[in-house]
Structure formats: structure tokens, C-alpha cells
């Protein structure tokens, strides 16, 4: 961050919000941006707390950016941020998901239209063996429980998409962590062309896709994910009985 004023403002904001929840930080970041629209520090806070939020409000982000003066609009940081937002917009809730087709551990090509997932809600989990081990362990435990619950369900499917770059490392992690549901990998890491449209900035991450290929939810876990899966299964069961 260049400029003493920007550095000082950003440092003060971080100290002031150090003990706040993420939700409160987002609200305060939004107020900061509105009140300091000429400062580069506002761009950083926009990226950190609103663009990288679990659920991004595209229209709000665009509105905040539009209030910024031309001098900021022309910076490289803002150009990069606009591109990032454009990618995020492609996988917003209710948007159709980008297509990908990747090999599983046996080399078979898998996509959301594969027979095992056809006419189901599909929970896609993005992960990598090199990601934070505690996060992987915690989320994998949750996913294993979900798989045991839904592995014979006619309305819910699960797919793991690894961002590993070495196939043997990926396969070893699948075995070690007992990831029994379908797993695929394209060895592209965070630069994977297949997963780039999903705007996966942190791992693990997930997206729930409807049978029609629309995004239903992104990056929800715990009780929220459990509830969404139950609602989705019930909705699809009701729809099929008509």
C-alpha cells in the first residue's frame, strides 16, 4: 500500500476492528469506503472484506466502485479487481455454472452430467492436499459424514475437485483421508483452467449446483450446508412426484 495516509488509515482500521466479527468488519469496511472514496486503502478493504467474502454482493461491490474517482479507477489494482469481480459474477447464485470435464482416480472423464450425478443436486468440493491441514481435516470430517448420509440418496450427489499438481500426491491424499465419493483432478493447481471460472481463492471451498446447472449456494458449511441439502433433496423429491 503506497502513501503514508493510506497506510495510516489502513493500520487504524485494522486495529479498531481487530476484535470484531467478520460481519461487523464487512459493515465497517463498507462505511470506510463510502467515507474515504478517494483513498487506495478503500480498494484494499473492498477486496479483503467484500469481494473475498463467502457470499459476495456483486451489485453492492459495483456500486461502491462506481463512487470512486477516475484516478483510482485507472490504477492497476482496480483493473485487476474488476476482472476478479467479473469472474465471480459467473458463479453467482442462480447463474449457470461453467462446464468442466476432468479425470477421476481411474482416468475416467467426469462432469456434472455424468450418470451418477444426472438429475441430482451436486455438491462440488474444491480442495488440495497442500492446503491448510487443519481446514482440510475439519472439512473432510464434515464431508465424510455427509457422504454417509447421502451416498444412497437419489437427489444429492457429491464430487471432489482437487487442485493438486501431482497426480500421485492427490491419489495418496484421497486414500489417506478416506474420500470415498467421486474425486477428480486436472493437475492445474490454483491456475487450473477448469476451476478458474469458479473463482476459488481459498481452500477448501464448495458450490452446490442444481440439476439444471444453476448455482444454488457457495461456500456454506456446517448447519447451513446440512439444511440446504435437506431442503434441496425435499424440493427435488416433491418435484419428481408431480
From TrEMBL:
Compartments, as annotated in UniProt: Cell envelope
Keywords: Cytochrome c-type biogenesis, Disulfide bond, Redox-active center, Transferase
Pfam families: Thioredoxin_8
GO biological process: cytochrome complex assembly
First-listed, main subcellular location of the protein, grouped into a coarse class: other
One cellular component (GO) term of this entry: cell envelope
GO molecular function (one): transferase activity
Residue ranges of every copy of the Thioredoxin domain listed in the record: 91-238
The keyword Transferase is assigned to this record: yes
The keyword Transferase is assigned to this record: yes
Protein name from the UniProt record: Adenosyltransferase
Lineage: Bacteria, Pseudomonadati, Bacteroidota, Bacteroidia, Bacteroidales
Amino acid at each position: 500500500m503506497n502513501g503514508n495516509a493510506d497506510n495510516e488509515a489502513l493500520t487504524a482500521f485494522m486495529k479498531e476492528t481487530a476484535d470484531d466479527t467478520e460481519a461487523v468488519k464487512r459493515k465497517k469496511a463498507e462505511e470506510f469506503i463510502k467515507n474515504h472514496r478517494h483513498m487506495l486503502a478503500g480498494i484494499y478493504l473492498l477486496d479483503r472484506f467484500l469481494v473475498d467474502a463467502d457470499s459476495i454482493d456483486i451489485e453492492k461491490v459495483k456500486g461502491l466502485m462506481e463512487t470512486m474517482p477516475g484516478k483510482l479507477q485507472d490504477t492497476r489494482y482496480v483493473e485487476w479487481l474488476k476482472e476478479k469481480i467479473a469472474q465471480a459474477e459467473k458463479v453467482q447464485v442462480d447463474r449457470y455454472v461453467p462446464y468442466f470435464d476432468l479425470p477421476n482416480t481411474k482416468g475416467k472423464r467426469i462432469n456434472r452430467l455424468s450418470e451418477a450425478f444426472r438429475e441430482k443436486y451436486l455438491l462440488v468440493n474444491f480442495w488440495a492436499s497442500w492446503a491448510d491441514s487443519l481446514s482440510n481435516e475439519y472439512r473432510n470430517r464434515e464431508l465424510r459424514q455427509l457422504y454417509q448420509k447421502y451416498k444412497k440418496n437419489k437427489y444429492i450427489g457429491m464430487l471432489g475437485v482437487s487442485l493438486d499438481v501431482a497426480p500421485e500426491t492427490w491419489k495418496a491424499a484421497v486414500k489417506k483421508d478416506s474420500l470415498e465419493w467421486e474425486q477428480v483432478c486436472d493437475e492445474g493447481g490454483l491456475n487450473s483452467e477448469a476451476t478458474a471460472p469458479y473463482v476459488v481463492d481459498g481452500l477448501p471451498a464448495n458450490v452446490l449446483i442444481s440439476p439444471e446447472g444453476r448455482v444454488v449456494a457457495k461456500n456454506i458449511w456446517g448447519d447451513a450446508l446440512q439444511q440446504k441439502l435437506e431442503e434441496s433433496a425435499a424440493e427435488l423429491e416433491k418435484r419428481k412426484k408431480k
